[in-house]
Task: inverse folding
């Protein structure tokens, strides 16, 4: 199981480094399959926060702190209510929910990507779209460890500068993941996976290795090829998680 877990982190982390986001979409479903719904999503939060922390120092000057503040205010405010809704849910229901969130989020991201040629949709200083985006991302992070698609949808609709978006996403993902993790530990009865110390070290090395692998792959892979791999892996992982949840009900 640990070898498969390391493989999921390496693939998801390297793709996030190359594509800018997507760790939760790609690695999340496989981690849930391997570890379980509550512990798996919690592990996705931990690794996602650590990954953002490793990247944030390189992009700090390009962060849009105004957007970050509105997004975080909304995402943190929904973390506890979302965790309370998860408390007592069966593993089958959680896996079905996670699978549906992954498939729906990726489909939404693909559909909205077609709007890139359209004009800007939101007023420059209007915080309401940011609040809706942050809340949706917060719920997704608590439920499935997936907070990126709502942010990507907002970025497409608002024609957000790609460099500023990628930079701002890092502190947001880190804060979002930490808030989701704290809410689930305190209010949803979640626990960390019972790994030995050496296994946690291996996971940490896999995290660092995934970023290094992404650095090597980035100049060699086209954005289109990376996007296709990201989409296929996300759909496969989401469908597998959904199928296992359904199978538990039969």
Result:
């Amino acid at each position: 199981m640990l070898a498969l877990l390391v493989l999921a982190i390496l693939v998801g982390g390297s793709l996030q480094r190359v594509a800018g986001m997507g760790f939760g979409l790609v690695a999340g479903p496989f981690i849930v399959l391997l570890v379980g719904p509550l512990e798996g999503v919690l592990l996705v939060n931990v690794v996602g926060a650590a990954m953002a922390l490793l990247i944030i120092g390189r992009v700090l000057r390009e962060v849009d702190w105004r957007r970050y503040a509105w997004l975080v205010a909304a995402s943190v405010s929904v973390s506890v209510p979302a965790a309370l809704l998860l408390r007592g849910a069966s593993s089958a229901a959680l896996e079905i929910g996670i699978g549906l969130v992954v498939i729906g989020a990726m489909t939404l991201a693909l559909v909205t990507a077609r709007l890139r040629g359209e004009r800007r949709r939101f007023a420059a200083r209007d915080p309401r779209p940011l609040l809706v985006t942050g809340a949706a991302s917060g719920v997704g992070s608590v439920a499935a460890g997936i907070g990126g698609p709502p942010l990507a949808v907002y970025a497409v609709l608002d024609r957000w500068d790609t460099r500023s978006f990628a930079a701002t996403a890092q502190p947001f993902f880190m804060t979002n993941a930490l808030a989701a993790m704290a809410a689930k530990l305190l209010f949803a009865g979640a626990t960390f996976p019972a790994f030995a110390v050496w296994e946690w070290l291996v996971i940490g090395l896999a995290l660092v290795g995934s970023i290094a692998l992404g650095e090597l792959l980035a100049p060699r892979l086209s954005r289109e090829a990376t996007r296709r791999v990201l989409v296929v892996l996300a759909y496969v992982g989401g469908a597998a998680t959904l199928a296992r949840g359904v199978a538990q009900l039969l």
Observations:
- The chain has a mean pLDDT of 84.
- Residues 2-249 form one domain.
